[in-house]
Amino acid sequence: MQSIFAGFRNVSFVYSGDLSSFFLWCLFILSLVQNNVITGVYPASPSSWLFVVIAILATMYTRSDPSMGLIAKIQEHLPVSDSLSIQCRTVVSAVLFSTLLWFSLIFTMRLCLKQLLSYHGWMFEQHGKVSNTTKIWAAMVRIFSGRQPLLYSYQGSLPNLPVPTVKDTVKRYLESARPLMSDSEYERMTTLAKEFESSLGNRLQWYLKLKAMWASNYVSDWWEEYVYLRGRGPLMVNSNYYGMDFLYVTPTPIQAARAGNTLHACLLYRRKLNREEIKPVILNVPLCAAQCERIFNTTRIPGEETDSLIHWQDSEYVAVFHRGRYFRLWLYHAGRMLSPREIEQQIQRIMDDPSPPVPGEAKLAALTAGDRIPWAQARKEFFSSGVNKRSLDCIEKAAFFVALDDDEQGMRGDDPAGNLDRYAKSLLHGKCYDRWFDKSFTVVVYKNGKNGLNAEHSWADAPIMAHVWEYVMTTDSFQLGYTEEGHCKGDVASSLPPPTRLTWDIPAECQERIERSLAVAQALADDVDFHVLPIQEFGKGAIKKCKISPDAFIQIGLQLAYYRNRGTFSLTYEASMTRLFREGRTETVRSCTSESCAFIRALEGGEEVCRRLFRTAAEKHQHLYKMAMTGGGIDRHLFCLYLVSKYLGEESPFLKEVLSETWNLSTSQTPLQQVELFDFVNHPEYTTCGGGFGPVRNIHANSQIHFFLLCAFHLFSFVCS
């Protein structure tokens, strides 16, 4: 089967109605079937079925019965037919037995692999000191992992997220709360926790274990619905995040050309994604790839009580916003993908279009930037029929959204640092009406050729989009490239139809709703004080030379900065991924610990034991991070217990207090260079600040990030001295 379909992997097409597209569409369906078969039998291969059949038949011809009588039993139950001789019935029985044996072997291999992937002891071993158990485990994983996996090959073998015991979660919670509470507060919370553990907690845990028995992941569906989709505040700033372009390099200053390569690179990634040709991410063990399924063709639909995520199987076009107008840009023609040069030409056609926006059109996307209930009501009232529904459907069913911005951004001019701040702030919220915040992601291309993205958060976490964006940036610069004049490479077909202008009929009442949503969004955007500080003096390599985890170093630096700024410590959120498990998303690392507080107090007091305390604090943080990754976190378990208590109508003072705690510091980290398309070491100018989120809480500390930078330098000089 693999050889039959091997030639289809280089075909790019989308069915658009003509005969050639229909033929290619049929090939696409066959290719999907092939991938489903390969993934379904992994870690075995389809060809292994033939090997098993031949082996069974060969042993039968040596007058031995490998089935121990089962082949004869199968033969007895075959329907009698004059056209089948006894020998043919024996062969059919042997083939049926071989097939059953083959499926049994696949099931056994997947079960063994699932058990092997449930072992996480390797994460807790010291660097360079690998135990014999881990060595044997690693060898067994290689044996049962198979070869040449597709993107989703490991999904059926990933373990389910375990449900921690109530006792362990309560113990770890109290440990995390101790440095943030006075003795009396801690004693009261301990009493509440013990009461919960000995009574209601066990009952709630029973329901949670029941869910874990039938759900792929006992957290993720509730997390998506109650944390993201039921949020009624603006997505902009509060939820959506941004990704940046290269800091010091702009491959071309021509806006349409940069858009051409960027959009074409996005299509190349989508083609690899559809064919499952993207390699699964493996950190000694494979990570769950379920979040990749909704990267493209996905939109968040507003509702009055809860939003919903809609994903379409495919889309042939993108929706483009330029100077208050909306366009449909087809990315395929005559069954083939448009070249970068052709997309550039189409983008230029949009930019040259002199038509003005109709009343209400220019700021229409502000509805997606404001509160969700007004947007849901306006969508139902004004966009449920006629031209408005058709145009809205066009945007929502697009592969993704594209914003052509008239501003120039990036590290430029006499104030590169200030311009970098404005660049990131623009990507986070723009003008509040020039990003479609409901789309899975919006590609932003600026007038001077800089680009970036804004991504909706409910469908997946930032590392998924970071992988896409790094692929797009590197493919744009190192694979596709530009001509000497700065234009995209390739030829242009003379028969390309122009982009289609979307039409709207927006009444005055709807325009008022748009203005109200814009006012809400603008107030939120104006309240964000945004700073991006690239640190060039040292990085993770220098920190690692001191035998310190860069993540632990940054987290302790944040605690030091906050303490010096406020004179106290704060509950601190750091996101950790749980993609070692099927459909895993994130867990919380509570990085303000008794160990980090002890180090900071000693440092401020000038004590000589600081270096030892720092090492202890860093090791503690690493342990907490690994616990969160391996299912031993606190907050997701407590969150699910709380949801069960609300469903049962039970009140828990302990859970109520825990879930109402304030996170003054919310931090996250996404590793750069997830793709290996070029060498950052030999091309240091092609670096990026990655991306970021808006603040989760307004703490009115405008200078705090600058203060953190000073504290980071102090900490680095202290650690490495």
Strand-residue proportion? 5-15%
How many strands in all?
17
Q: How many distinct domains?
A: 3
Our count of helices gives 25
The residue ranges in which pLDDT falls below 50 over 5 or more consecutive positions are: 1-17
Largest sheet: 8 strands, mixed
The geometry reads as globular
Distance between the termini: 61 Å
Spatial arrangement of strands, main beta sheet: 13-7-6-10-11-12-1-17
Helix content: 40-55%
CATH architectural name of the largest domain:
2-Layer Sandwich
* CATH class descriptor name of the largest domain: Alpha Beta
Going by helix content, strand content and strand pairing, the class is: alpha+beta
Remind me, CATH topology of the largest domain?
Chloramphenicol Acetyltransferase
CATH superfamily of the largest domain: Choline/Carnitine o-acyltransferase, domain 2
Pathway: Lipid metabolism; fatty acid beta-oxidation
Family: Belongs to the carnitine/choline acetyltransferase family.
InterPro entries: Carn_acyl_trans (IPR000542), CAT-like_dom_sf (IPR023213), Cho/carn_acyl_trans (IPR039551), Cho/carn_acyl_trans_2 (IPR042231)
Subcellular location: Mitochondrion outer membrane
